[in-house]
Inverse folding.
């Protein structure tokens, strides 16, 4: 089952909207012209249109997307596709820009279902489609809808596929995309909005032994250096990129993915990408439904202060034929200060040690935050913190050591996890690689699924991997049944304070024997019965809970929680220039409220768990 009740309700609402005139674009009456001072409105009707028409009224609509792709548009122009229209083997290609006041808009007109564009495995050779460079290693792809080197463009209310029928997984040697925004050596491009689209049936080829297919799939924002040599390209990225309200399902490899060549900086070893880091700004990925994905659900790369919220992500990591099955639900790589909040992530697949977690602070990340999320039944665990084999943070030589790959100053707080990390030795929380200044606090973890041995490996930070200033505190670890064993495999630089353990006595190294609460947290409801982000009241604390006021305040305990260690590099002071400049990492501000919306104040001793209230 792809979608739970909440996701089905959201999809139904979108479908109902599609049967009505959308965004105020109602078909012209009496063949009136679509021209105005603000631009021209063009109509495209696959059934009743004709490319020899003017295209500027409903009665004189064009018929093909080829006509659209060959037309030069101006600021304020609107390209409206007739509801119930179907195009097969055609690419919608736009390369013209609007302005901040007059964007170019693609949308639907008339009553009925959203127009469908079936790419049918678009290739340059077969359909003369414009290609997309997937990476700087010479791999190319084709997208059914492609916006190239344009800005102030909005894509709304389309159904998009790109499938080669009859081919098994991995048989097609063509990389495919549904919708792609491509910035190829074009500088900073503004205002690309992709909203309320359904993207599905994209069966992109995935190499069996590497990650090149990572930037193909459903909705892709791609920044390419155009094949230019190092420091010879135009510094390129996005400003005001919005991917909102879309339904992305049954695609390979990625659901929603941001990818760039402009990502090299010391935090990722300096050798990643082909150009120095350029941060994209004002990136928002919200209110999307993403499910049945061969690879990752949502991935954010090379952004500063991106916002990822109110997304529903389910059944990712379905890829089976590739040896590179390292996938997670929602995660970040080589980006700073991303906020992931109010998301629900469920059912991510993964066979340990091949990921499968809901979340991941990958290497090259700093100042990122997971808060107020609900996750459940993710096979590989709740949270991964990782870096490649042999990585370090290279303090002795921060700019010359290309092995310097680490994560720094990330926080995960006030989340609820239900039955994550249970399959084949998976860990609920895994640390694999250089990790610094990580804080995991005030989360509630419920674990009732166990591996064959009857034990739960709750937290594992590899002892042969460097970690520094890692703090796990004020969390509830509730294990059922009580005969299971909860193990914490950590090193000396991973510190535990004031957690609550119930269901089994912890074993292993460094867990907080003297400051913990080892008792039933006395939830207000039956644990394990949460059904969604807004249906998790069973984990609220009752008035008699021993977790009320039993936490520790990190800000008022500098001896136990020393100031964060300054990074050797964390982007630029304003994150707007090109190239890395060493600076200190600013700390993430304290939470203002808990998972349930209760205020978190500095005047009260913190609770343990995701509920800061004094009991219901």
């Amino acid at each position: 089952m792809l979608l739970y009740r909440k996701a089905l309700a959201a999809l139904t609402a979108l479908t109902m909207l599609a049967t009505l005139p959308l965004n105020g674009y109602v078909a012209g009456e009496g063949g009136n012209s679509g021209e105005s001072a603000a631009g021209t409105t063009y109509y495209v009707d696959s059934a009743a249109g004709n490319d020899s028409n003017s295209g500027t009224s409903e009665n004189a609509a064009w018929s093909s997307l080829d006509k659209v792709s060959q037309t030069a548009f101006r600021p304020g122009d609107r390209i409206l596709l007739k509801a119930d229209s179907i195009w097969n083997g055609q690419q919608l290609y736009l390369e013209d820009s609007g302005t901040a006041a007059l964007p170019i808009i693609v949308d639907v007109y008339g009553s009925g279902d959203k127009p469908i564009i079936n790419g049918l495995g678009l290739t340059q050779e077969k359909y003369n489609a414009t290609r997309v460079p997937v990476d700087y290693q010479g791999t190319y792809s084709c997208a059914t809808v492609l916006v190239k080197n344009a800005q102030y463009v909005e894509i709304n209310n389309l159904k998009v596929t790109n499938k080669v029928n009859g081919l098994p997984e991995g048989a097609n040697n063509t990389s495919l995309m549904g919708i792609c925004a491509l910035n190829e050596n074009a500088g900073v491009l503004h205002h690309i909005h992709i909203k309320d689209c359904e993207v599905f049936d994209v069966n992109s080829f995935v190499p069996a032994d590497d990650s090149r297919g990572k930037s193909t799939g459903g909705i892709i924002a791609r920044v390419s250096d155009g094949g230019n040599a190092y420091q010879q390209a135009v510094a390129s990225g996005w400003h005001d990129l919005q991917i909102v309200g879309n339904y992305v399902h049954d695609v390979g490899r990625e659901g929603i993915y941001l990818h760039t060549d402009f990502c090299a900086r010391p935090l990722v070893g300096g050798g990643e990408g082909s150009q120095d880091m350029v941060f994209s700004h004002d990136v928002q990925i919200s209110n999307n439904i993403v499910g049945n994905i061969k690879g990752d659900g949502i991935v954010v790369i090379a952004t500063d202060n991106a916002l990822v919220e109110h997304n529903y992500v389910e059944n990712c990591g379905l890829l089976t034929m590739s040896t590179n099955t390292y996938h997670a639900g929602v995660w970040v790589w080589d980006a700073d200060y991303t906020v992931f909040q109010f998301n629900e992530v469920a059912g991510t697949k993964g066979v340990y040690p091949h990921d499968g977690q809901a979340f991941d602070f990958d290497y090259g990340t700093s100042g990122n935050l997971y808060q107020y999320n609900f996750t459940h039944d993710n096979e590989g665990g709740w949270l991964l913190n990782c870096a490649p084999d042999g990585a370090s943070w290279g303090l002795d030589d921060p700019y010359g050591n290309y092995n310097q790959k680490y994560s720094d100053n990330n926080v995960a707080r006030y989340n609820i996890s239900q039955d994550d990390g249970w399959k084949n030795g998976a860990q609920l929380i895994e640390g694999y690689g250089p990790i610094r200044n990580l804080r995991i606090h005030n989360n509630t973890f419920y674990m009732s699924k166990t591996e064959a041995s009857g034990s739960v490996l709750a937290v594992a930070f590899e002892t042969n991997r460097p970690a520094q200033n890692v703090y796990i505190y004020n969390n509830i670890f509730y294990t059922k049944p009580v005969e299971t064993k909860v193990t914490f495999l950590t090193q000396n630089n991973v510190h535990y304070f004031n957690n609550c353990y119930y269901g089994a006595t912890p074993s292993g190294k460094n867990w907080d024997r003297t400051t913990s609460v080892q008792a039933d947290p006395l939830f207000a409801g039956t644990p394990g019965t949460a059904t969604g982000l807004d249906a998790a009241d069973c984990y609220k604390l009752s008035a008699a809970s021993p977790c009320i006021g039993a936490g520790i305040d990190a800000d008022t305990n500098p001896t136990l929680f020393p100031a964060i260690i300054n990074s050797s590099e964390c982007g630029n002071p304003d994150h707007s220039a090109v190239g890395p400049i060493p600076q200190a990492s600013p700390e993430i501000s304290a939470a203002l409220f808990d998972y349930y919306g209760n205020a978190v104040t500095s005047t009260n001793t913190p609770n343990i768990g995701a509920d800061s209230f004094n009991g219901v």
